[in-house]
Design a protein that fits this description.
Length: 418
């Protein structure tokens, strides 16, 4: 009996020691790099040029690219950041992953060094928190993890099979890959689930039906966004569910309608184009583009995060300032900022979500939702923008953005939510 008690005590102490050794109270890596418009431009170009099926293609990802990508994925979970270092045949990654409150530490800090081989990379060093995992143990664990993922998740095998070869180079990871039709469908489905959480399905279908019904009651094909948004907030209040999730589903449903995307087909995984009759196109201050920038940024914010939504909005304006574009518009950028702030407050917490419902249920003026930004400069081509503002770090540009934020601060809706 004494031996058994001693063994149990040693096991419990060992488990506690391992937990405290593996977990930390602070991250070892801080996210210092945000996704920039240039990153989005490169991603868009890659997707448009390299998604042919059955054709081998290659891509080079820099240390910065990998850091931004993995840090963004960690931020979608419990927060975190990653830093990569690449040299010929060597890759080192340091990452900090935030953990749920139930864990004895707030952070999992990992320092991993991999060596390129003819097959899967091999571990040369693995530090987890304060624990140095022997290579003799780390590599078998890596092989076991790979085998387990391969056996349990067919999608893992399909995605891995697209990679024909890889190479660790100086400041670069080079991948040679070939997509097949089923892999592209898998990626499309994954992208869909990132935008629309599958758990939203019931609420999204409900609000999509209500948006169609409410739109059918409009007097014509053009209407103010504030002719339907208060009604949706009234429905969200009346349903009595979690106000955060009700608001989330209502906003995404309205956005899908505005952009002529069928929610039922989206949720079923059918992403092929299929035009449908849209009864009403909503506007703000008489302009469709303002409503669409507002809704698009709002939906992105509650589906991903505000930083990505802001980057996408800025990327759109930079693209518009190029040849063939409609021009850089502070009006559109202001609508993006309004949509982001609106969405953040709509799903921030239970109290904020309920306040949003209550305030919008009883107000239908567009000026209650956002200022009339149509007096701001727009239609700038690249040359004109650079002459007036230089770049996004200039005093003139930052002053203009501060003006936009001040005007948002004075908006009745946002004043009511302070």
């Amino acid at each position: 009996m004494r031996f058994l008690l001693t063994a149990v005590m040693l096991f419990l102490l060992g488990t506690a020691w391992a937990s405290w050794s593996l977990l930390d109270t602070a991250p070892s890596v801080i996210n210092e790099e945000q996704m920039r418009p240039a990153d989005l431009r490169r991603a868009h170009q890659f997707l448009s040029e390299n998604l042919d099926t059955g054709r081998s293609s290659s891509i080079e990802l820099s240390e910065s690219d990998l850091g931004v990508l993995v840090s963004g994925l960690l931020e979608q979970l419990h927060g975190g950041a990653a830093r990569f270092s690449l040299s010929p045949s060597q890759l080192q990654v340091q990452l900090s992953a935030g953990l749920p409150a139930a864990f004895p530490g707030n952070w999992l800090n990992v320092d991993l060094q991999l060596a390129q081989t003819d097959g899967l990379p091999q571990v040369e060093q693995l530090l987890i928190g304060g624990l140095n995992v022997p290579v003799e143990l780390a590599n078998p664990l890596l092989d076991l993890l790979h085998a387990e993922l391969d056996a349990r998740y067919p999608d893992y095998s399909r995605l891995l099979s697209t990679v024909q070869s890889y190479a660790f180079k100086e400041d670069q990871l080079q991948l040679v890959y070939a997509f097949e039709a089923d892999t592209l469908a898998l990626l499309s489905s994954t992208g869909r689930d990132l935008l629309v959480d599958p758990r939203l399905s019931e609420g999204l279908l409900y609000y999509s039906d209500r948006v169609v019904a409410l739109s059918a009651e409009q007097e014509g094909p053009r209407a103010s966004l504030m002719s339907i948004l208060p009604a949706l907030m009234e429905l969200a209040h009346a349903r009595g569910g979690d106000p955060v999730e009700e608001n989330r589903a209502a906003i995404i449903a309205l956005t899908l309608y505005q952009f002529d995307i069928d929610a039922l087909r989206l949720l079923s995984g059918d992403i092929s184009p299929a035009p449908r009759a849209r009864g009403v196109r909503y506007n703000l201050f008489g302009r469709y583009d303002i409503a669409e920038h507002f809704l698009g940024s709002a939906a992105l914010t509650i589906s991903t995060d505000a930083a990505l939504a802001e980057s996408l909005g800025l990327q759109k304006e930079l693209d518009d300032s190029g040849v063939g574009g409609s021009g850089f518009s502070f009006v559109d950028l202001s609508a993006d900022r309004t949509g982001i702030r609106f969405a953040e407050l709509a799903v921030a917490n239970t109290s904020s979500a309920r306040q949003m419902q209550d305030l919008l249920r009883s107000n239908s003026e567009e000026s209650f939702l956002m200022p009339d930004f149509r007096d701001l400069p727009e239609f700038y081509d690249n040359e004109t923008f650079q002459e007036a503002y230089g770049d996004m770090e200039s005093a003139a540009y930052l002053s203009r953005m501060e003006e936009i934020e001040r005007r948002l601060d004075s908006t009745p809706l946002f004043q009511g939510l302070r």
